[in-house]
Design brief:
19% strand; lyase; 4-stranded parallel beta sheet; 363 residues; Rossmann fold; globular; Dehydroquinate synthase-like, alpha domain; 2 domains; alpha/beta; 3-stranded mixed beta sheet
Length: 363
Amino acid sequence: MSEQTLIVNTQSHDYPIFIQSSADKVDLVSRLVPFIKGTQVLIVSNETVAPLYLSELAQGLKSHGFMVHDCVLPDGEQFKNQHSITAIYDALLERHFARDCTLIALGGGVIGDMVGFAAASFMRGVNFIQVPTTLLAQVDSSVGGKTGINHPRGKNMIGAFWQPQCVLADMATFRTLPDREFAAGMAEVIKYALIMDDGFLAWLEDNAEAIRAKDGAVLGQMVYRCCAYKAQIVAADERESGVRALLNFGHTFGHVIETHQGYGNWLHGEAVAVGMVQAALMSAKLGLIDHADVVRIKRILTLFNLPTVAPAIDTQTALGLMGHDKKVQQGKIRLVLLKAIGKAFVTADFELSALEEVLAETA
């Protein structure tokens, strides 16, 4: 099947994810046109992705009669900040964009998060579309409406929930995606298996060679399954008041690495990979899973060229950074842990000494 469509159901509105896996040239612009509001379109991309895809997308939209402008930002997690958001606002205001406009996020998770936040806040909310070009963005950040920017004291601390009108994921973009970025995306793929479906983990193990070879058909199946898992959770808990917190498996630990090491020095997926190992070690320390499960998790992460050992971070420093995490409630650090592979839960019921041991053990 060259294209699959998945519908995400939310309280605000339902929207489709188009997953294109065919090697044949497809008119992707025609997929977007029905979801564009008004005639003014701003495509926001970065300096890496824009030279590859911006011109073709812009020309295609212009051929349909839209007035298209662009805003090209620097590439990197370190630019996911208020300065970049202001650059998007400037582009909109300088060209007199009205409320009935559409923003298109063309890039990875950083671009998608920032464009979504700009769309949520410009004129108190305008239309936007996600065209994710990285694996991480396709399977995770482009779906579900979590948008935002980083603050020097914490990752994704400023943002809003704002759902896109549609998401278009084209497996062909992986041909230009660097291997390190592709590996980082696999961390989020593996996350779904660990928190929701042990059968999916076996599927990833069985199909590792085809995935690493970037087989379009296999990747299409993989992206579809991940989006289906996330759509299921988002439909049940759009604003992360309950079950959606499970999607943060490995993230509380991983955000410590990203913040401490400096945004962009560790890719998000790399930090999450190590964070998942730390969460698995914590789960084993509490007697929830076996050491063999931890070994299996490390093995599949290594299989997809992801790190499994944390950089040296002082334990008290790490705990301090965890204290700024969004999942802290009533002063207690909440962790997503595993009862088994494929079964995750959120808890604050653990001894701080156990967490300290894990942080020290993986340093």
